[in-house]
Amino acid sequence: MLTLHHLEASRSIRVLWLLETLNTPYEIKHYARDPKTRLGVDAAFSGKGLAAVHPLARSPVLTDGELVISETGAIFQYLLAHYGGVDIAAKTQQAQELSFWLHFSEASFMLHLMPLHYANRAGVLTDDGSSAQEAIIARGLKVDIEYIERTLRANGGSLLGGGIGPADICNIFGLEMFAAMTGARSAAWREKLGLAVGPEIQKWLERCAAEPAYKEAQKKEGDCKEALYVSKLFKQPS
Amino acid sequence: MLTLHHLEASRSIRVLWLLETLNTPYEIKHYARDPKTRLGVDAAFSGKGLAAVHPLARSPVLTDGELVISETGAIFQYLLAHYGGVDIAAKTQQAQELSFWLHFSEASFMLHLMPLHYANRAGVLTDDGSSAQEAIIARGLKVDIEYIERTLRANGGSLLGGGIGPADICNIFGLEMFAAMTGARSAAWREKLGLAVGPEIQKWLERCAAEPAYKEAQKKEGDCKEALYVSKLFKQPS
């Protein structure tokens, strides 16, 4: 049996959404965040909770019987290979594009977004995006966003063309996070740094939000009344 | 014919090293960095140089005849599948561990290291690691480093056991970068943040540096006289 070890309001939602699109039974094991710190409650190497499944105590982790699969991209590849009939290594441009997007989501986009998230959390972002650090942070992100915008335009509204699929699903969390973070800044900040959701990405976010399998995933995660799922993560604790 | 589109002093060195371990012909096309900014000279979407191979103008890109493969992890998977006889999707823990490390290198480790790199470039790191931002940056990195240290200890000095292999090769750039960056900080800074190369990682770095295929890769990159290959990237321009 497939089991998704799922931390609430986390990038694990993507695996949950992917599982909803595959015709295979699975179960979810839910893990909570600390309501104050918003961090997972299970410390790495503690052997408790998520750390009992994988020492890093990070989510998602997929177990398939005795097998333990960690890292979102690796989980996508495993599920697609064994439950989706997709050979990610095929010598076709289509397969290599999918492989690209499965890596890009974390290895490029989240990698470029995380410095912004950390700077935001540390309270060092300026009102108008004028610091040297923000300029450095923006550089890679701007290129990522432009590439996604161009790709969606060229491919008729999804990353690989042919409608919302695994490449899109794998990139939803980063783009929702980007939308939530840049949406909370001033217009001057967005303009100065060139960091804003473009029209194609906006339509894509709405298209993803309307996907029945994504709605079902959000329902299984625990009812979400936010416009953007990920905004739950950025709420100030009460 | 396989062609590696290789930006000097970049994470592309890992693909070059991997190619040196595979029994297949390939060629290297070299791309330069701007000596002042240390950025690649080809702007994204410019259609010139690296951007003529892939619009993002990032390195590495592998071409295999007409096929274009981008993102380091995707390139590793492709090369391992077609030129290394490795099925990354196999339902074995060993295959899934390899898949994990190929994603971890960028999607976890570099993702956690990049905020430190950006903060360093922006000149906002403190002498003693006492800022709120540094504490936030350190959290994920510390866990990564401890996990690598534990894994190397458990597996006899390589990430998957059985000697230096693709999992190690894929992680060399991030760990050399971590060693160069933390080595340039004060002992007080390293102690405060818990960010330092441990004994297992130190031995692993030395073991990697002694690998004939890595030496050959560095030679093909262009002679490197630095103790750590990656330190070239952090040299101040003259």
UniProtKB/TrEMBL annotation, chains A, B:
Residues 1-87 form the GST N-terminal domain. Gene3D superfamilies: 1.20.1050.10, Glutaredoxin. InterPro entries: Glutathione-S-Trfase_C_sf, Glutathione_S-Trfase, Glutathione_S-Trfase_N, Thioredoxin-like_sf. SUPFAM superfamilies: GST C-terminal domain-like, Thioredoxin-like. It comes from the Eukaryota. It holds the Pfam family GST_N. This is GST N-terminal domain-containing protein.
